[in-house]
Each structure stands twice: as structure tokens, then as C-alpha cells.
Specification:
By secondary structure, the protein is an alpha+beta fold. Helices cover 24% and strands 31% of the residues. It has a single domain, classed as Gcn5-related N-acetyltransferase (GNAT) (Aminopeptidase, 3-Layer(aba) Sandwich), CATH 3.40.630. A hairpin with a 2-residue loop joins strand 2 and strand 3 (58-70). The chain binds coenzyme A.
């Protein structure tokens, strides 16, 4: 069997500059104005759910999960997810998503929200949510608000404003 092209490992503090540079490349300066950014603003990502994809000794991509709330319930916000274009289309993006979802499930989390493309995230377990049931605190294309349940039935119970963890 061939060795995998990449491996995943936990985030380490000294990954931060490379992750920031990749986010600048992938999302540009407009990322700070996005509604998803407001949901994460000032909240530490969960270090146990933040992963890095390595291609040999080269940093190739990363994902983070940040605590948030939907109504009164706790949830996680997935993202940013980014893979460097040098290493695209080799499965790292999907691998990062699957691994962080599994780690979150094992840690007892029930729901994960993200703002992203359904064609990419649908096969990974995410689906659209009725915007009358779960809504965000700013402008967003509601077709891109996606939820994954980590416990059967969690999707049906999600209800209310998606909020930054510190908003209470
Ligand atoms: C999106 C991204 C994370 C994908 O990473 P990746 O490691 O190339 O992804 P994978 O190798 O797991 O999957 C690649 C497949 O997903 C498809 N894909 C990539 N982005 C997609 C999108 N937005 N919508 C639908 N399909 C997409 C690719 O065409 C490819 O399809 P194929 O397998 O049929 O060739 C990466 O391209 C990226 O960082 N993009 C910029 C930032 C971004 O958009 N992040 C997601 C926020 S919503």
C-alpha cells in the first residue's frame, strides 16, 4: 500500500503564522468582516479540535472549531478550513473536516455549524437549516448556513440565533 500523501496532527502554537498567511491567501482581508468571523471573534478555538495537515514536513492546511451557541444550546463553529493551493485536491480538506468532526463527537459535542458550500460539505454530513429556525447575527447567504449533528436528533432541536460564545 502507498503511504498517504499527508497526515493530520494537532495544532501547535508555532503553526499560527502559517495559518494566518494561508487565511490571508484563501480569504483575503474581507474575512474579518464576515458574519462567521463575528461568531468567532474573541473566542479561543478549541485546541483539541484544531488540526493541521502536513505533507511531509510542509504545512498544507488547517481547520479550527470554536465554541458558540445556537439559542441556549452550545455548539461548535467549524472554520476556517483552508488548504494551500500547492496541496489542493488530495483529500486534505475532507480529511481535516472528518477528523475534527469525529474528535468533536468523541468529546461529547452535539452540533456543528458552518457557513460554506453545500456541494462540498453535504457529503461530509452537513445540511441546510431552515433560516426561520436558526439564523445568524449578520448578513449571510442562508443557503450556505449548514449544520451537522454529532448525536442523532440534534439537528431537529437546533433553534434560535447563532451567537458568539461570549454573548451569553
Ligand atoms: C475548499 C478547500 C478547503 C478544499 O481543500 P482540498 O484539500 O482541495 O479538498 P479535497 O481534496 O478534500 O476535496 C477536493 C474536491 O472538492 C471539490 N471542491 C473544492 N472546493 C469546493 C467547493 N467550494 N464546492 C464544491 N466542491 C469543491 C474539488 O473540486 C475536488 O473535487 P474532486 O474530488 O471531484 O476533484 C480548499 O480549496 C481551500 O482552502 N479553498 C479556499 C478556502 C475555502 O474556500 N475554504 C472553505 C470555506 S467554505
Amino acid at each position: 500500500m502507498l503511504a498517504p500523501a499527508f497526515f493530520l496532527r494537532p495544532f501547535e502554537e508555532n503553526d499560527a503564522p502559517q495559518i494566518e498567511a494561508l487565511h490571508e491567501l484563501a480569504f483575503g482581508p474581507g474575512r474579518f468582516a464576515r458574519t462567521a468571523f463575528r461568531l468567532r471573534e474573541g473566542v479561543e478555538p478549541d485546541p483539541d479540535l484544531s488540526l493541521v495537515a502536513m505533507f511531509g514536513d510542509r504545512f498544507g492546511g488547517s481547520v479550527t472549531m470554536t465554541p458558540m451557541r445556537i439559542g441556549d444550546d452550545s455548539a461548535l463553529l467549524l472554520g476556517p478550513l483552508a488548504v494551500h493551493p500547492d496541496f489542493g485536491k488530495r483529500g486534505a480538506g475532507r480529511g481535516l473536516v472528518r477528523a475534527t468532526l469525529e474528535a468533536a463527537r468523541l468529546a461529547g459535542h452535539r452540533l456543528v455549524l458552518l457557513v460554506g458550500d453545500e456541494p462540498y460539505y453535504g457529503p461530509l454530513g452537513f445540511r441546510r437549516v431552515d433560516p426561520a429556525r436558526v439564523w445568524l447575527p449578520g448578513p449571510v447567504d442562508t443557503r450556505r448556513v449548514l449544520l451537522a449533528e454529532l448525536e442523532p436528533g440534534a439537528f431537529e432541536t437546533a433553534n434560535g440565533l447563532a451567537k458568539n460564545w461570549h454573548w451569553g
